[in-house]
């Protein structure tokens, strides 16, 4: 950027980043088959006592990390977790970090219906470095058909059922005082997976209408690798 004779550098103030990937319909179908089973099982373990989700009509259920139909998802998350680790330290230009393994240590399903919501919260971590995330396996028509327009004026309902990240001040009039709002709303789409640092606060707005909004949430820990060689096969697309 040039202002008359002066060269001006723009120095961005960046706090964090989120990974987004789509895991494909085949994996989603077999996950949903498993989730249908535990949803219908009266003896399925509830995870609600560990969560803040106000899921009164639906359920929040513990997912077995040994379940065959869940293992492909766990492998994807752990691979993405390693990519996240590498990408983070590449961005911060820190080459001193040891190789680590990423471990999915907790996973649960969230079956939400009209009026259910998840208030602003962060996630606990097993290790100092932790990632959390969600993947969508069912989205009701009323959310699917929403425009993706995030304008909330005139009681638009545009963000009903959306996931919202809050990573700083979120002033409505911020842009008029040179303050970039530090929040981001995401339209949930079946197959989309989001991976973020566990401290990053987020919430889910309620929706109105027929159908189930179904997602899986999870936490990832990082552990030092004894043997420094490891495979890392997910590719990262910078945005
Ligand atoms: Fe959460």
Question: What does this molecule look like?
Answer:
The chain has 239 residues and is an alpha+beta fold. It has one domain: Jelly Rolls. The chain has three helices and twelve strands. The chain has helices at residues 25-40, 71-91, 141-144; strands at 2-3, 6-7, 19-22, 59-62, 100-112, 118-121, 130-138, 163-166, 183-186, 192-197, 201-204, 213-224. The strands form three sheets. Strands 3-10-7-12-5-4 form a six-stranded antiparallel sheet. The longest helix has 21 residues, at 71-91. It is globular. The chain starts with a strand and ends in a 15-residue tail after the last strand. 28% of the residues are buried. Mean pLDDT is 91; it is low at 229-235. The structure holds fe (ii) ion. Fe (ii) ion (FE2) is lined by residues 121, 123, 202, 217.
The largest beta-sheet arranges its strands as 3-10-7-12-5-4
Number of domains: 1
Cofactors and ligands = fe (ii) ion
Low-confidence stretches: 229-235
Sum up the structure in keywords.
239 residues; single chain; alpha+beta; 17% helix; four-stranded antiparallel β-sheet; six-stranded antiparallel β-sheet; Jelly Rolls; binds fe (ii) ion
List strands and helices in order, with pairings.
Layout: E1 2-3, E2 6-7, E3 19-22, H1 25-40, E4 59-62, H2 71-91, E5 100-112, E6 118-121, E7 130-138, H3 141-144, E8 163-166, E9 183-186, E10 192-197, E11 201-204, E12 213-224
Antiparallel strand pairs: 1-2, 3-10, 4-5, 5-12, 6-11, 7-10, 7-12, 8-9, 8-11
Bound molecules: fe (ii) ion.
Fe (ii) ion is lined by residues 121, 123, 202, 217.
